[in-house]
Amino acid sequence: GKKQYDREFLLDFQYMPPCI
Amino acid sequence: QHPLHYRWVLWFFKNDRSRPWQENLQPVTRFNTVEDFWATYRHIKLASKLSSGCDYALFKDGIQPMWEDYRNKRGGRWLLSLAKQQRHTELDRLWLETLLCLLGESFEEFSQEVCGAVVNIRTKGDKIAVWTSEAENQAGVMHIGHVYKERLGLSAKTIIGYQAHADTAAKSNSLAKNKFVV
């Protein structure tokens, strides 16, 4: 399916540490 | 990791008149997840911190950020021209919002019409544009324009225009006429 994300969802990841 | 619908390429342009134009435009990185986008974004300078004459461009993988690419040739751009003082107050917010519109596929079924976006850092006033692939597709271009204007939080009296690349290319002073406005 189409990967559609709203701005709040995208912004939630802004300061997350990268996965290892 | 959260996959994006497309893989995207971030390009950087630095104006060096001693070199051919195309050599000044280089891909910096590719990513196709939300996490990798933010890793890139945090790593690079904000648009407002670039020198005049520089650009960032974010395009779908496989499309070069130039009119000559066959995916752009018949297309055009929604263009936002900023006043000089907006570099320090609004440029970074508007450019990030533009990126989030693209990466989140915010234009519904018309997101496939989007080729990429460009921010030009210029002394006389910065510019942000969303490039689409088909200037004659009025329904798609207008939908993208309405959504984009709303997402940028522009007031109703602020008008943004869409110009066909063919018209821009024909003008040496970059004052191509607007094909559509929202």
Helix content of chain B: 25-40%
* Number of separate helices of chain A: 1
User: What is the C-alpha radius of gyration of chain B, as a whole number of Å?
Assistant: 15 Å
* Helix/strand structural class of chain B: alpha+beta
Average residue-wise pLDDT of chain A? 84
Main β-sheet of chain B: number of strands, strand sense, barrel status?
Answer: 8 strands, antiparallel
Order of helices and strands of chain B: EEHEEHHEEHEHE
How are strands sequenced across the largest beta sheet of chain B?
A: 2-1-3-5-6-4-7-8
Percent in helix of chain A? 25-40%
Oligomer: heterodimer
Please give the count of helices of chain B. 5
Explain this structure to me?
The complex is a heterodimer of chains A (20) and B (182). With 20 residues, chain A is mainly α. Chain A has 1 helix and no strands. With 182 residues, chain B is α+β, with helices and mostly antiparallel strands. Helices cover 26% and strands 28% of the residues of chain B. Chains A and B meet through helix 1 of A and strand 1, helix 1 and helix 3 of B.
Structural key phrases:
heterodimer, A: 20 residues, mainly alpha, elongated, B: 182 residues, alpha+beta, 5 helices, 8 strands
How are the secondary structure elements laid out?
The complex is a heterodimer of chains A (20) and B (182).
Chain A: H1 7-12
Chain B: E1 3-13, E2 25-33, H1 34-43, E3 55-60, E4 76-81, H2 86-89, H3 91-103, E5 114-120, E6 127-132, H4 138-152, E7 161-164, H5 165-170, E8 180-181
Antiparallel strand pairs in B: 1-2, 1-3, 3-5, 4-6, 4-7, 5-6, 7-8
Give a quick rundown of the structure.
The complex is a heterodimer of chains A (20) and B (182). Chain A is mainly α and 20 residues long. Chain A is 30% helix and 0% strand.
